[in-house]
Amino acid sequence: MNKHSNITNNQSPRPRGKIRVDKVNLAHGGGGKAMRDLIDDVFVSEFDNALLASLEDQARFKMKDLAIHGDQLALTTDSYVVDPLFFPGGNIGKLAVCGTVNDLAVGGANPLYLTCSMIIEEGVEIDLLRSIARSMALEAETAGVQIVTGDTKVVNKGCCDKLFINTAGVGVIRTGLNLSASSAEPGDVVIVNGLLGDHGATILAARDDMALSTVIESDCASLNGLIGGVLDNCETIKFIRDATRGGIASVLNEIAEASGVSIEIEEEKTPIRSDVKGFCEILGLDPLYLANEGKVVIVVPQEDASKVISTLQSNPLGKSAAIIGTVGDWDKGRVTMKTKFGGRRIVDMLVGEQLPRIC
User: Fold this and answer.
1) Which of 36, 113, 251, 344 has the most C-beta neighbours closer than 10 Å?
2) Based on the number of CB atoms within 10 Å of its own CB, is 33 exposed (0-12), middle (13-18) or buried (19 or more)?
3) Beta strands at 296-301 and 239-242: parallel, antiparallel or unpaired
4) Cβ(142)–Cβ(226) under 8 Å?
């Protein structure tokens, strides 16, 4: 987590520092002992692995160890500024790991390594940081990835809202795979792996402290295992994308535009829990634009759809998988929804900002 180290290849690891205060202060970002103690006690102790242990300016990998997974390196980066930091089903730390893992996995990559950079506001409680670091470590273990390097910055009170996290992820794409938004063709079908809109609804409910009869939980989850299983069982998949900001509506519009096709989904077949529908009706929101953090959109030839559905449904993260629509050429670049009353409505790309700071 630091840009300093006392370790060489011939030295024994130094004793790790211990933090002695309850809250972060500016000295914890100053590069000295206070910073080292914070990094050791809060982050290194949770993320502990051989690649991180040396605390060099970079994590180092042997190319042969990467090449066994495929022939293309995948690199992604993302930043997390969610408000509130903790919400039903997760927190900013779990979200940071899941989001980065999923961004690699939807490209067909096997996620391997993550970075973690923390921008911390002066005055944040150490126990809060420790809790977030622990949840990151647990989710990284679940996803089978390692957090191998990072950075820590502390800013004056009021310069950020408690904590922002930036992550980067490295993975390797299996040989011969090329998933792309420009690959959809008429006759393909659109599949999702489960209920939509849960994360966006959860964040808004948690932020406004709404008294809902049923608690909605974020679907925040690492999907590399689910996606890997689908790719193992079906070689004809054209495209996979996690439907985060902008929801499935934005993903579908990206596909339609990039491939020069039309897409029509069916309201009756689109899985959205009744609580989320009711929540959206009260607030005047469209669940198609709500963020998800554990849902993917998959485009596959119609003849292979049943194979993909059965594979998804065999995994707990895909038990509500469904075919929601088809790809055509009747109005290129257009996404529509067939309503439950038999009419059709246009589903445009999200304009403006439906919900701020959802991830």
Assistant:
1) 251
2) exposed
3) antiparallel
4) no
pLDDT digits (tens, 9 = 90+) for 150-189: 999 999 999 999 999 999 999 999 999 999 999 999 999 9
Instruction: Please give the structure tokens belonging to residue 178.
Output: 């090329």
Is-contact 358 82, C-beta < 8 A?
A: yes
Residue 249: strand, helix, or coil: helix
Would you state the structure tokens that stand for residue 56, as one six-digit string? 């060099």
Could you tell me the two tokens for 148?
């191998």
The residue assigned the tokens 């066994």 is 68
pLDDT of residue 263: 98
CATH architecture entry for 26-173? 2-Layer Sandwich (3.30)
Best CA proximity match to 100, nearest among 73, 72, 130, 79: 79
Fold entry, domain 188-346: Phosphoribosyl-aminoimidazole Synthetase; Chain A, domain 2 (3.90.650)
The verdict on whether omega for the bond into residue 84 sits within 30 degrees of 0, i.e. cis, is yes
Q: Nearest Cα to 38, choosing from 10, 80, 13, 4?
A: 4
Q: CA of 226: how far to CAs of 13, 222, 237, 358, in Å?
A: 38, 9, 14, 24
Q: What is the pTM of this model?
A: 0.94
CA dist 305 and 298 (Å) reads 10
Helices and strands (DSSP H and E) totals, the chain: 11, 13
Q: Does pLDDT of 91 surpass 90?
A: yes
C-alpha 59: how far from chain center: 22
Say how far apart CA 332 and CA 258 lie, in whole Å.
10
